[in-house]
Amino acid sequence: MHPSRSRRGWWNAVADVSRMLVKRASPALFAATMGTGAISGLFVAFPYATGSHPMLVFSLIIFFLNLALFILSFVLLAAKYIRYRGKWIALWNNPATSVYVGCFPMGGTTLINVATQVIHSEYNIGGKGFLYFLWAMWWLDICISFLCCWVGLHYMITNQKHSLEAMNATWILPVVTLIVAASCGGVVAGSLVHYSETHALNTVIVSVFMVTVGLCLALMILTIYILRLIIHGLPSGGPLLSVFLPLGPTGQAGYAVLLIGQNLRTLFPPLLGNAGFPLKPDTSAGVIVDVVCTCISFVLWSMATMWILYAFLALHTGLRQALIPFKIPFWGLVFPNAVYANLTIQISNAFDSRAFRVWGAIYAVGTLLLWISIFSRSLWELKTFLIIRKNADSNLEDKDDVQQEIHTHGSTHTSSTEIV
């Protein structure tokens, strides 16, 4: 075979696969970045060998993997909605897929968290300029989060048709964006305070507003979700996995509130009226705020633990009836469980509790194994997808472009391509 023809055939195959990936791209892809980023954060928070070189290296490896996934998902979605502009409006009118738009800013916050905690705080790469860049990215992220929450919820009310029976826990995705962004604000403020107490305090104040609004809306939706489960029973198939999603708002809100209290311990105006910085912890009203926030965080951890018990019971009942085929909703299992593990570890630090520390470590390891299994299966499904595409193309060498396009549409409705 002539070399130029071989190169042209290889390029055509790559272009064909790229077009197919663009067509099948969905905002749900960012669920993978959320889960991967949460795993990166668990290596930072892990209660044993905390801050050790191996833990930081593992965290950075997964961080850069997550960054690559985030960029790839963004490029695929941007290409899709630029080329097929009508699909953007169709996305917002679709009650099943529009809620996953919130995964985009939440995936971004996981990158900001690890970049702040490891790249800046541990290795001091980039110094003040890099931290302020991350702070600017946080402001951009919260703007997108507000749009996902308010515009997304408004579209659900005005432009979509819903029913109680068809409801699942993915309804909370647009509103939980505010909670996740609030926890990210707490992380950034902890580093920002070394350069500007005013900027750190403003960041914490905005985070308080976001976690308040996000948690209130999330609890309202979870109340409706409980009603749906009681009246109509457990959902079947892939939607059954959404029973773990309530861990997200409860667990992440607990983490956000805990960080807010720790930041306000030194940033809150003192009891004696001296507003100078830095504040002394023993004279600051922030000590009281910190204690109250710690108690609230424990209450939210208790709610998350309750949801875990219900989720495992629901999963046990559902799997006894039928197995769940592997699809992208499986990625929705990683982030909520990682959030719960992280909150448990942070509670153990606040209470200096060995029981919480051990339980948090066990749950973090379990979540890591869950991520490894889902990531490995996703790679296998992607490989299967590429093999199917290659075989389909080899059988259509003599067909024209229109015939190949018709065959392509007919061959993509297989379970192996659902992850993309």
From TrEMBL:
Family annotation (PANTHER family): PTHR31686, SULFITE EFFLUX PUMP SSU1
GO cellular-component term (any): plasma membrane
Entry protein name: Voltage-dependent anion channel
Subcellular location as annotated: Cell membrane
Family: Belongs to the tellurite-resistance/dicarboxylate transporter (TDT) family.
GO molecular function: sulfite transmembrane transporter activity
UniProt keywords, alphabetically: Cell membrane, Membrane, Transmembrane, Transmembrane helix, Transport
Record carries keyword Transmembrane helix: yes
InterPro entries: SLAC1/Mae1/Ssu1/TehA, Sulfite_efflux_TDT, Voltage-dep_anion_channel_sf
Annotated membrane topology: Multi-pass membrane protein
TM region(s), chain numbering: 28-49, 55-78, 99-120, 132-157, 169-192, 204-227, 239-264, 284-310, 322-341, 361-380
One Pfam family per UniProt: SLAC1
Main location: membrane
